[in-house]
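## retry 2 of 3
previous attempt timed out at serialization; input unchanged, resubmitting
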Amino acid sequence: MASFTRQMERLNTFFENKGQLPKIELAAASRSTVSSTSTKLRPCLSVNLYVENHGWVHLTVPAGTSAGIHEPSSLTPEGEFQTAEKKAFNDYVRDRLVSCNPDPVMVDQLLEEINDKLPIRQDGIDTPFSRIGGPTATATSLAAVLALARATGVSTEIAIHFLYDKIAAAYNLPPAQRMSLPVYMSKIADGGLHGALDNQGRPLNPVQEFLFIPIGYEKYTDAMEVTMQVNARFWNLMRERNFDIRIGAEGGIVSPQLTSAIQVLQLMSMAIRGDGRDNRPFPGVFIGLDVAASELYDYRDAPGKYYLGKDGRAVFGSQYVDHTQLTEYYCSLIEAFPVISIEDPYCDSDECLSHWEYGFSRMSQDILVVTDDMTVTQPDRVQTAVKWGTGGLLTKVNQGGTFTRTCRAMQIANRHGWVKVLSHRSSEAADFVFEAMLAVASGAEFLKVTVGSTKGGGGGREARVNWVSNANVIWEAIWKGIKEEGHPEYKVWTRFWGNNVLEDLRMEGLPYQGALMMHEKNPPSWLSRVQRLVTARYEQAKITTTPIHKLEAYCFGSVGSEVGCF
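## retry succeeded, writing output
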């Protein structure tokens, strides 16, 4: 493979001489084969493009089993073969693609044009690309990115990096600045509707996902090793208490004995600070939550309120709470446990916009508030969200619909000081690692994956472990190329944390905090707080959690934490 600089020159030449470049000769859509079906054995849509003199490229997009109300909609009901998408591609898209240059930006414009000319669906759904089908648009758009890489002889991640900056220039938005390796968020446990339910179908544990975030490490391999160790501790703590351990549909640990988010956070905190067998603390590991609050909102017997179950009764005396009480609950968790990130803390309905504004005003100074279901990687919705404060944008390419829309949403967020969180998607194809490449190529700060549940089962676990491995391999190749050719990019890398207490960790290896370096001169307040916490933890060489009064009687009362929480 040519050097980094040479590959970028090839791409520049491509866009300067389009008339002399290869064309797309054939295009086909099909249901995925067994080898590329989704991680939950659900049908995915594949698009194949044949580029003149360069052969076929193949792209299978995630099925996406948990679609939000604002994101591109599939034409086919969940779990069924996507014959409607295949028909839409053959009827409306295929012939328009043939004889085109493999230019993803042009292909995305074509998809927008085709979709807008079609009538609104009979079911009345009119989200982006709902007329030709979200999977049709995403598969075609990303296949065009692969076709560009094939036609120009560059690696896919370099092509993504080039296109990301090209799109930024076209819309007067900030470029990627530099490629880097993201900090990853490793899911360990499932709750919410992915976990155990009561006899009325309500979640026993209100928080949908619990994640370890190894943010306080300078080497990717160090962060990975520590995460594996803290995951193993979590398992040991579960086994010591004779919990019934299962693997959830999304790859996290599920147990009917885990009936409270506070319970899970207690176990995670114990795993971070030492489990009795091994009392070495892991000062650089923190906790992230994905609440998926839309699943907790507006139950029939409590309209306009959120369901917290056992946690709600313990803290507020009621299992149903309003958005101000819900925010107080989150603030309690932030103060009691090492939580630094919370995703989807409120409902995604537009009637809940005031909930988000209130939540940002209360929490965004202390932790990273991440939007997913409310923004769904759509530029117009991100433009609304950035007015609330500084946060994080969860990014999924099949929510964006096309590569161009996805990049624009990320760039709008970046312009306002938000960080980018690339995420896995439910029912993705086993060989789908596009988001790992996009994370590295766009300089994303975080990559959210399931790598914690290492013992059997799990709907998306193997594919997402593949993501982490691919991100590391991709970045290693890029980093070596930049370093060997003496590229100016190499000279700008400095240590992010810059604390003397981390000197003993200084080792040869790949930079891990690269994306967060971009915020070093003017860090958001939540990141400054994390930096202070990391420094203090290393200086103290131990980890403690200080519960506040609302949780004290529940988890640390006179009966002791073991009885009170477990």
